[in-house]
Structure formats: C-alpha cells, structure tokens
Amino acid sequence: MKKLHIRKGDEVFVNAGDDKGLRGRVLQVLSKENRAIVEAINMVSKHTKPSAKHPQGGIEKKEAPIHISNLNLIDPKTGNPTRIGRKLNEKGKSVRFAKKSGEEIKS
User: Fold this and answer.
1) Minimal CB count within 10 Å: which of 6, 17, 84, 87?
2) pTM to 2 decimal places
3) Is residue 22 part of a domain?
4) How many domains are there within the chain?
C-alpha cells in the first residue's frame, strides 16, 4: 500500500479542475488509483433504475473521485493550502507536517 499525502478525514483545497479554489473533507481515499472522494467536490449526475433501495429511480447527484495531485492539505495553523513533508517525531514514528508552518498534522 502506497503512502499518500492525504488521508480520510483531512481538510483539502482543490488546486485544479472545475472545482478549483473550493475546500472539502476527504470521505474516501482510493490508493490504487491515486484518487480521493471529497465531500461536495466533483459532483456528477448518476442515472439510476428503480430498485428496492431507490423505488422511484431517477437522477442522483454524487461525488466522483478526483486525482490527489489536484488536492492540497489545509495547514492546521494558518488555514491555507500547504505541501506535506514527513519526519520522525520524538517517539521515532513517521508523522506528516505542513511545509509552510512546520506544524505536525494530526489525523
């Protein structure tokens, strides 16, 4: 499994694409495809047939995956987008930190 710069639950900034400039929370990370599903970002219309779950059927709006290269993590100190680095903390565990402020990212 690859280590990616974002994880489920992170607050991210979209830096490219149709939703450029928006922020959202990561709902799911698809590590094999290098994509993430972000809340209320990259919405698509999905046509559904009537079923037991959706008896009416119709058009359903849902989030589509977005490539992680188009996402930046939000710096916990400043609230601005930042790049991510990795370093060992005092316990010898690898942790993520914001390159702009140097703040450790809790997840």
Assistant:
1) 87
2) 0.89
3) yes
4) 1
Residue 48 CB contacts under 8 Å (≥ 6 apart), including other chains: 54, 57, 58, 59, 60
| Core vs surface per residue 46-81: b (16+ CB within 10 A) or e | eeeeeeeeeeeeeeeeebeebebebbbbbbeeeeeb
pLDDT the model gives residue 3: 85
33 lies in a domain?
Answer: yes
Q: What mean pLDDT is predicted for residues 77-100?
A: 94
Give me the residues paired with residue 36 across strands. Answer: 29, 66
According to the model, what pLDDT value does residue 106 have? 86
Question: Which residue range is the domain that position 68 belongs to?
Answer: 11-98
DSSP one-letter code for 76 = T
Q: Please report, for the domain that includes residue 27, its CATH number.
A: 2.30.30.30
The answer on pLDDT for 20 being more than 90 is: yes
Whether residue 6 lies inside any domain: the answer is no
